[in-house]
Design a protein that fits this description.
The chain is of the alpha/beta class. It has three domains: 18-110, Lipocalin; 131-277 and 361-452, Alpha/Beta hydrolase fold, catalytic domain (Rossmann fold), CATH 3.40.50.1820; 279-359. The protein has helices at 183-193, 218-233, 250-258, 278-292, 297-316, 320-334, 340-350, 353-360, 364-367, 387-400, 438-452, and strands at residues 18-23, 32-39, 45-51, 56-60, 63-67, 70-75, 80-86, 92-99, 102-110, 131-140, 145-154, 160-166, 197-201, 238-248, 268-271, 374-379, 406-411. The strands form two sheets. It has a nine-stranded antiparallel β-sheet with strand order 4-3-2-1-9-8-7-6-5, with no helix packed on it. InterPro entries: AB_hydrolase_Est10 (IPR053145), AB_hydrolase_fold (IPR029058), Xaa-Pro-like_dom (IPR000383). Residues 144-386 form the Xaa-Pro dipeptidyl-peptidase-like domain. Residues 1-23 are annotated as: Disordered. One of its GO terms (molecular function) is hydrolase activity.
């Protein structure tokens, strides 16, 4: 990533080049920071920031200066000022990090941090497993590609009811892996032990699956999920009339949409699926994340207005080049100091086929056609798909369909991944050892057991 910088004093030695690391001493969930300092031939210091726990990499500081033995860093984008003093041996910088009216100690050590031990994930299944596990491939006729996945089958007497797991947004593997967690592996293990055959698969263009991810939309992923259901219905040992869909996040929405299509699943579990349109969801998501992050009301309001304008530009400008040309100045105004190349990349991502489709996606018409039994769950600490807003919309839509077999439940204290959480912020996901709340697993398993017998 390109970096902006202020010139350092030409007469001063520059002993800082290379990586540095430290832990920001915030009261909750202290993040590890990694700073990459380079010294340009023209006497300029440039500094880029990584925050691994928050998936931040290469974020350039807008100012970097060495004054005698003091390092001064500025980030207009983050609203950060760091001032620290270099130790006599040149191996440590001791200073304070100021951001949005607060400040915390930050001691930087020369070099990269030692490789961390893998985080504990006690729910990951460990061999030997009490069920069969098969690697499978199946075709999506409409897309002309094959998808690869894992089918787990109980060892007890067949045939079995079965479910397909559908992942959330972004390129996901069959385990929906994130920050060392494998939510779908844990869910498949739990349900297979309870007597269900479970199919989970890599997204198109991910892992061992064919197809192209970059140009795919929610409609394409819906077609993949339908192909998975059709495949599972043909498998030996599976009860073809008792094959359901369980989806998480975007997958939860896809599961609901599939219920309005021909040959719908026998039952549906929507985990943090959306019930409102994409624009409304994205605006609420931004507000909830900023609130949970502790951002002040004025700053939150400014960012919301910018987001509203950006989304309107996307929705009213169908061609990408003029849309991006209108978006970059807005992004620059909201994020001064960030290189224009970075802002252009952000605008391009927001005008991708998936983003454009999702922005206009409204599940309400489909919900009024869903007749299959539905279980819709969401966590009260979900800052990505707000529980109150979306569960109410899902329930309202299904009620309009005359669907009398609907269970809607908000689960206290759980985040978007259905972990027991403190803040609900994505930065917390990897720090929690729990992959999937046992109480949520039990609710899903009990509901499926009751409906699979029908």
């Amino acid at each position: 990533m390109a970096s902006l910088a202020m010139p350092a004093h030409a007469q001063q030695p520059k002993p800082l080049a290379g990586p540095w690391h430290g832990t920001l001493a915030t009261p909750a969930n202290p993040p590890q920071l990694i700073l990459h300092i380079t010294e340009q031939p023209n006497g300029v210091l440039a500094v880029a920031l990584d925050v691994p726990s928050q998936k931040v990499a290469g974020l350039a500081f807008s100012g970097a200066e060495l004054r005698q033995d003091s390092l001064i860093l500025l980030s207009d984008f983050l609203g950060v000022r760091y001032a620290g003093r270099l130790s006599a041996d040149g191996q440590q910088v001791n200073g304070r990090w100021k951001q949005n009216g607060e400040q915390w100690p930050l001691v930087l050590q020369r070099g990269l941090p030692a490789a961390a031990a893998p985080p504990p994930r006690p729910q990951d299944p460990v061999a030997p497993l009490p069920y069969l596990e098969q690697q499978v491939r199946f075709k999506n006729p409409s897309g002309g590609h094959e998808l690869a996945g894992t089918l787990t089958i109980p060892r007890s007497k067949a045939p079995f009811p079965a479910v397909v797991l559908v992942s959330g947004s972004g390129p996901q593997d069959r385990d929906e892996s994130i920050l060392g967690h494998h939510p779908f592996r844990v869910l498949a293990d739990y349900l297979t032990r309870r007597g269900f055959a479970v199919l989970r698969y890599d997204d198109r263009g991910v892992g061992q699956s064919g197809g192209t991810f970059a140009t795919a939309t929610t409609a394409d992923f819906l077609a993949d999920a339908q192909a998975a259901v059709a495949f599972l219905r043909t498998q030996t040992g599976v009860q073809p009339k008792r094959v359901g869909l369980i989806g998480h996040s975007e997958g939860g929405t896809i599961a609901l949409l599939a219920g309005a299509e021909p040959n719908p699943p026998a039952f549906i579990v929507s985990l943090a699926g959306m019930g409102v349109n994409g624009r409304e969801l994205l605006l609420r998501q931004q507000a909830d994340i900023l609130r949970a992050s502790g951002l002040d009301t004025a700053s939150t309001g400014r960012m919301r207005r910018t987001q509203q304008t950006l989304l309107t530009v996307i929705q009213t400008t169908p061609d990408n080049p003029p849309a991006i040309a209108r978006m970059v100045p807005l992004l620059k105004q909201a994020s001064p100091g960030v290189p224009e190349s970075t802002l252009t990349t952000m605008a391009a991502q927001m005008t991708s086929p998936w983003y454009r489709y999702f922005l206009g996606l409204n599940p309400a018409p489909a919900l009024t056609k869903v007749k299959a039994p539905v279980l819709a769950l969401n966590g009260s600490k979900d800052v990505q798909v707000a529980a109150d807003l979306n569960l109410a919309a899902i329930q309202s839509g299904l009620k309009a369909a005359g669907n009398r077999d609907v269970t809607v439940q908000q689960l206290d204290g759980l985040n978007h991944l259905f972990q027991t959480a403190t803040t609900g912020l994505p930065s917390e996901y990897g720090q929690i050892s729990e992959t999937f709340s046992p109480s949520a697993l039990q609710i899903i398993g009990n509901w499926l057991a009751a409906h699979a017998r029908r």
